[in-house]
Amino acid sequence: MRVLFIGDIFSTPGMKVARDYLAQAADEYDFIIANGENAAGGFGITRKHFEQLRNAGVDVVTLGNHGFDQSEALELAEETPRLVRPVNYPPGTPGVGWAVFEARSGERVSVAQAMGRVFMDPLDDPFRALDDVLEGVPEEQAVIVDFHAEATSEKRVMLYHLAGRVSAVIGTHTHVQTADETVFKGTAYITDAGMSGVQASSIGMGFEEVHARFVAKLPRRFRPAGGHGTLNGVVLEIEGRHARSIRRLQWSAPTGG
Ligand SMILES: [Fe+2]
Hints:
By secondary structure, the chain is α/β, with parallel strands linked by helices. It has 6 helices and 12 strands. The chain has helices at 11-25, 47-56, 72-79, 126-135, 152-162, 207-215, and strands spanning 2-6, 31-35, 60-62, 83-84, 98-102, 108-115, 142-148, 168-172, 182-184, 187-190, 231-239, 242-251. Helix 1 packs parallel to helix 2. It starts with a strand and ends in a 6-residue tail after the last strand. Bound molecules: fe (ii) ion.
């Protein structure tokens, strides 16, 4: 089974490049996951964005710390398991932290998301939360984990924790694609899949306002960077529970920057 994981889609340029890429490449994949927590101007996702991604061929949209910035996402999470939020949120949080889906190859694939706790808001233990998820998944089925976390060490220790037990641990949230993709004990891994959006930016936001906050120490409202986006992601080849390969992907429209 060939799986595409699209890294954090950031604002309008990220949505555009993701849809442009999928318009010509969605057929190449058996299953497509996209992190969409920054689709709405960097802060959350609306029903419109979710539907646009679904219509473009995305099977599951994962969230993160900005997942519920737009209240529409709270409603949406109650309506569909195809919007997956962190599994280690408090009990009673709307939506699901993992679910089982059917790929176009006919195989079953579980998608789970957990959020890290280093340099992030306190949450339940993501390691134990994912152990609990695995108890519910039949053996031999693919399991793909989006680990939305800040610290490289926490992400790499999640690989160690889940190695051989899941098909892939894909890091998201830090928005710069890392070059450490590997298959370790049958588990594909990358510390960060990168951001789908304007790369000449401060992880998606325009430089000017972020610079002003750092240098002048004055409050400035961040604005998403404008321009052509580049899609960042990874392509996974999975057989049963185990990954055979992981390949980084960076794509921009031929006419774009
Ligand atoms: Fe995030």
